[in-house]
Every structure is written in structure tokens, then in C-alpha cells.
Task: structure prediction
Amino acid sequence: MTSIPEPSFAKGQAAFAQKDYETAIAHLQPIAETDLDPATRTQAYQTLILAYYRADRVRDAIDLCKRISQDTETYPWAAKTLKDLTRRYRKANAAAFQPPGQQRSTPKAKSEDAKSLQRPLPMRTPEAPEVAASVFVSGREWRNAERAQKWQPMRKPRRWKFWLRIALTMVALFWVMQWGWTITAAVLQWLGFTLPLLTPPRWLDATATRPIIGSMIVCAIASPWLLDAILTYLYKRQSLPLYTLANQHPETAKVLQRLTRQHQIPMPKLGLVNLGAPWIITYGNWPRTARIVMSDALLEQLEDEELAVVVASQFAAIVQYDLIPMSGAIALLQLPFLAYQYLAQSGNWLRTWQKIPSWGGIILQTLCGWLASGFYGIYWLWRLPLLYFARQRIYYGDRFGAEFTGNPNALSRALLKLTMGISQHISQRQETLPLLEAWDLLMPLSHRQAVSLGGLPDKTPFSEMLVWDCTNPYRQWLALVNSHPLLGDRIYLLNRYANYWKLQPELELPTIIPPPKTLKDHAQKFKRSYTALPILQSAVLAGIAFGIVSRLTLWLIGSLAKIFGEWFSLWRLIWLADANPFLNGCIAIAFSLSLIVWINGYFPDIRIAPSRQDPRIEDLLRNARQVPPKSYPVRLEGTLLGRPGALNWLGQDLILHTSSGLMKLHFFSKLGPLGNLLPWPARPVELVGKKVTVFGWFRRGSTPWVDVDVIRATATVKTRSGYPVWVTILAIAAALWGAYSLWQA
Result:
């Protein structure tokens, strides 16, 4: 279009609003270059870039962004806009690209093939509202620390420790499954002999050793095809050709090719699932059957170099062969989790089924909900022995990915972007997708870590929020039931790799506090553990410590009485050497006394100070010395998120969406977790999706949470937890059992 003699900013904006983009460009081009008002120039540049984009002149928009992004002080948004436009341009090219085998050519078109190969690939333009929502948003600013150009390999880790951890993990999984079967069989036999008209089957008396070992072996062998079927049926997994990945993320494709050539293994099968959260896993029973499946959100939210190092860290599972036991374990865990998921969904559907009366729907939902909760408990129990090795393998993967690509800073950015993407997905979906929980042991980051950290405002520095992960002396103890290492700990190690290669790290984190080295230091830390651990864990440790000391003391007295009884008439004390009932009673009483002594300090009166009324999430996370017993009574307002109906009867997915981020909620009835299955009092899941006010105790651990006291939707609609009452009941029950054991001894 020819230039306009008298360009006008107002006319350019009006033409843009009327979708006359060429006229808008003609007016805004001279205004953006010559106007003396910086604010007017900024608005003109922003509208001009958007007009270029909507007029199918994306190259002009990219060129303009490249030029003005050099002035970072005046146009700080230009760099982010440039990345966004470049990513959209590559994605549109990849979507419009067809491999030669799929192209249809006619005799007339064959002469044009050579010319068409030299043209730019056609571009498919997304809808305009999507562009307007993502361009010109300030977002989080990244340092974008550089990568190594030449780097020396690090010293190789000791492989025997890695394989020893795998062996111990599999033994622990077998023991837990066998122990769980023994308890279940004993309960079923007791019910069969106690209740009328029920006869326990004979197979309950049989040992479960062979079936358990057989199921573990079968799951390990069939894991690639079993997990393929689950992902395809439930989440529409599709094949991701390497050329498609190369068009969008060329460095990632090159990294995969280099890895396969260097280690002389076939290219893993790439898969793609349509998921709003960034997600990637690796599984298989051998390098030849390995799969790497990722989500479309991961491809959109990570830059090419970030995705490349994430894929390289996932590839470590193939090279180190730990994908074999972990894939088998995940396939095994899918059995109880899918049973929980489908039973709970069936119960929710039966509750609203119009072909049966309402009371029948309630009964059927209750039965399905109880069974679903039982299977969820089995899933949680089987998952416990896998947690330690799951955390350790993450360290190996981070090291492998950073060393292969020479880009530890990109991995740091990728991990932080994963937290942001997962938290945003939970906020938008208003629940945690079951896929994020059932497959978390294979993911590079747990959704539990991302809930609060990823939802913080863009201006909140991550370096301040991760200080707790680096400096709290009890951080490792509080992360024992986590599936992934502390994020601050991982980024600190990545910073060490960057320093080793003389690179500036992406985040500046404080020096990590090392674990105790001497036996005296360990004893001092254990002695003070009751001031740092949650009340139940502290009471269990107190009971175990008292039991060990008592057992040694009683055994010593009994042994001395046996040796010197003939001379000093101490034969009456010989029984102390084998006083197991007496010892069990002492342990139970020690556990009970610990709960009684600590309960008042652990649950102080909720008197909300003005600073604790609707506090910002980032303010709650800043105290690096805080531990669970040092709680803060808080009052938070927001929307209650979580899975609906029987999927959430145990309160496993309760999240409060406040104005400053997300916060995990823990809710226990007066009868503990099992009491949540009863309809009275009202379950918190009945308030999901509503605006609520939460009163409770904020606690800082490896993942922050609030122990709920009251959830109130209105003045009359509310539910109260009974966590202090539940702890008191536990203390009384332990004391009674201890007294009975002492009486029997």
C-alpha cells in the first residue's frame, strides 16, 4: 500500500479495530518511527506487530521485533514477543508440512516440485483472539544464562550404588505387597468367621509369594504394550514422527539422533498426547522397546534448547536401564489406580442415574466409593517403596542431560517452566488430572511440587522461594515421602555443573547445608527431630527410639541375670531377655505420651492476626527456617478445587485457588482418613467449585500445605475437620493397647 500523506495514530487504531490491517499498517508505520511521545510509539509498535501478524505478514512482524528488541530498556516486551512469534511460525510451518511420501503430485505439478522445495513452507495462521491473549504479556523474565560451547566431562558416578538401589527397591516392593496381602487375607478370614452366612475361601490360606513375583515379572515384560494401551485408550496417544519434531524443535531432534548413534541403540518411539499440562515420560522393557511420550503443551511451553535437555535427561533411563524396573512398577501401579478411577467414576454416574431411585443411587455410589478408596489405598501403599529410588534416578537423569548437552541452565529454566505449566493447568481445569498422579514416578517433576511454586506471580523471584529447599536442615527428612527431589536441591546441583564449566547460573541460590557427617551430628539432629517433623512422624520416632533403648536395656538385664543368677539370685529377671509383649506395651505408651505432650503445641488456638488474614502465598513461603510444628494460623479465601464426587472422598485432591496462587489442603475427620468416607459431617468435596473461606494451620514442608480446621462456603454451609480429635483418639487407643500388653506380659 502507498504511504499516507497525513498518518494518524487514531485512524490507525480505528482501522485495526475494523480489521482493515493494511490501512492500519500504513498509518502506524510512520507514527512508530517519528512520534516524539514514547508511550505513543510503544502502542504504535505493539498494534503494528499485531496488524502484521493478522495480515499474514509474519516475517515483517518478526523482523520488526528483532529490530526493536535491541532496545531492552524502552521495549522490554519485544524479546518475549519475538520468541512467541517465532515459535508460532515454526509450529505453523510444521503443521502445513507434508513428508514426500504423503504428497500427491500430478503430471502438471511434477515440474513445480523442484521450485516448491526452494520456497518457504506455507504457514497456517492461528485465530486472532489467541494471538491477542499471548502477545504483549509481560510474563516472567528469565536470565537466559548461556550454555557451554566446549566442556569437559564430569567424573562418572559409581554404578554399583545405582544397581544396589534398584535391587533393594524391588525387594522392598515385594515385601510390601506380601505384607499387604497377609493383612488383607487375615481381615477377610476374620470377617468370614465372624459374620454369618460367610465362609472364607481356602485360597486365603495359600502363600502369595509366587503370584506376587509372577505379577512383577509379567508387568515388567509387558510394560511397553500395556502402558501403550492405557495411554492410547484413555488419552489418545498418537505417534510423533521425528521429522515433525525436527520442524518445530530441530535441536531436540538432533540430540536424539546423537544419543542413539553414540550409544548404538534404535531410535525410541516418540508419542504425543493432547494434554494441557507439560508432561513427558520414558518407559519400556529394553532399549529396543523404549518409548518417549510427551504432551503438546510441553512442545509449546519450552524453548528448543530447554526441550532438548529435558529429552536428554529422559533418555538417561534408557541408557542406564532403570526404565526396566520402573516401567514394570508403573504398569503394576496402574492396576489399583485404574480400579480406583473407574469405580469412583461409576459411583458418580450411578448417583445421578435416573433409572433408579435416589436412595439406590446413594447406596451404589457409597459402595463404589468405598471400594475405590480401598484401591487408592493399595496404590498409595505399593508406591511407598518406590519413592527412594524414584528420587535418586532423577539426579542421574539431570546430570546425564546437562552433561550431554552442556546446558544445565536450560534444564533449570525447563524445570521452573514445568511448575508454571502444571500449576496453570490445575487452575484452569480446577482439578488434578489423574494422569499427573498415576504416572508421576516417571515424570521429571511432580505435580505436588508445582502446585504452590508454579502459581506464584511473575514478579516473585524463584530464587527467594527456593531458599527453604537449600538451607533448611530437615528438608531431606521432610521429603522422604516425595516422589521427586527438592527442586531447589536439583537446581543447586545444576548451578554446580554450570560453575564447573565456568558458566553463570540461571538462578542464584544460597550454599546448600550439607547433611551431618559424624555420628555425634546425627545424634544431635535426631534428638531435635521432634521440633521439625509432623506430629505423627515425631511420635513414631519417639516410640521407636524408646523401644530400641528399652529393648537393649531389658536384654542386658535378662542376659546378666542368666549369667550371674546362681550367685546373686537374679533368676527371676531372666524373662526380661525375651520380653516382647512388655516391650510392645512400652513402645505404645511412649507413642501415646508423645502425642499427648505435643498436641497442644502442634494445634494452637486459631487466633488470626491481621497479617494472617488472606496472606499472599509468596509471603508464607519466604521463611526458610519454618518446619511443620511451627505452624501459623491462617485465614484464606478462594475457590476450592479438586476432583468431583467419590474420586475425592479421601480428600486426596483438595486445593485452594486464592488470588495469589494455589495452596494444598489436608482434611482429616475425627476418625482419621477412613472417617472421610462417612457422609457425616459433610465431606469437603461437596464444596468443590465454590467460593470458600478456609481456617487452619499453615505448615511448611517439602510441599507447603494447610491443615484445615473449617471450610466455610456461607454462614450455614460449612464443614469442620477433626484432626486434633483424631490425634487424641490415636493417643488414647495406643495407651489402652500398651496397658493391655503390659497386663498380658
